[in-house]
Amino acid sequence: MTNGVTKLGHYSLEKNSLYINGFPLTDTVITRKPVLTEAPAKLGYRLSFRIVNENLTNPDSQSPEYKAAVESISNKMNQLYHQSNLRDQFLNCSITRLRTGSIVVDCKCFFQPEPSINRAVVERAFQDGTSNATGLWLGSSYQLQGFSVDSLELAIEAATYKTPLKSAKENFRLNFRISNLPYSPELQDSRSQMYRVNKQQIEKEVKLTAIA
Fold first, then answer.
1. List of the chain residues with pLDDT < 70
2. What pLDDT score was predicted for residue 157?
3. Would the pTM count as exceeding 0.85?
4. How much is the pLDDT for 172?
5. Long-range contacts for 3-12 (Cβ within 8 Å, ≥24 apart)?
6. Are 126 and 47 in contact (CB under 8 A)?
């Protein structure tokens, strides 16, 4: 290493002359502590069902008709679970796709990861929230025909320590003064033997210091 930043191989460095990217070493070198990151854990389920008393004529997801249907169905799905016995574990539902004709709905619903939450209880809550004397209804607007609930395979990241700058390469500009190399005009001439020899030696010592 550089012996308290006063030695570079057989070269002596002037104390406090080392700058990195224009900043003194004391301002630049910061102890990098590992960062604890934890992805938010959640359980996800894919629900699909058909709405038989409404039609979707425009499959373009940017069309006003499509957007209005997504908003209306999404609101009713969220209201259903907010009013269910899973309200404390429920996070949100979002519509992922609507298909034309009598509307086929695909959506994803998410819950807190508690032992009591599983595919069967999510399905039961949906059935309880849509069943009445005349069939299955989502709210008072949409009559349903059949539904399915499947678990989503979510990539949940466990708590991990991430150390910044571990794998990425970075370039730094180093400036320092060598106190035991007497000044010579040849050192300013990049074509001179003295310039080339010292340049190669200094680059070698800097590289060895970086590896160490």
1. 1-5, 15-40, 154-172, 210-212
2. 42
3. no
4. 65
5. 5/176, 8/176, 8/178, 8/202, 8/205, 8/206, 8/209, 9/201, 9/204, 9/205, 9/208, 9/209, 10/205, 11/178, 11/180, 11/181, 11/201, 11/202, 11/205, 12/178, 12/179, 12/180
6. yes
Element housing 44 (H / E): strand 43-56
Sole residue written with tokens 């004391």? 26
Tell me which amino acid residue 80 is: L
Res 206: pLDDT: 75
Q: Which two tokens stand for residue 174?
A: 């180093």
b/e burial code for range 150-179 (CB count within 10 A of at least 16 → b): eeeeeeeeeeeeeeeeeeeeeeeeeebeee
Which residue, chain included where needed, has tokens 């190669």? 200
What tokens were used for 7? 């030695």
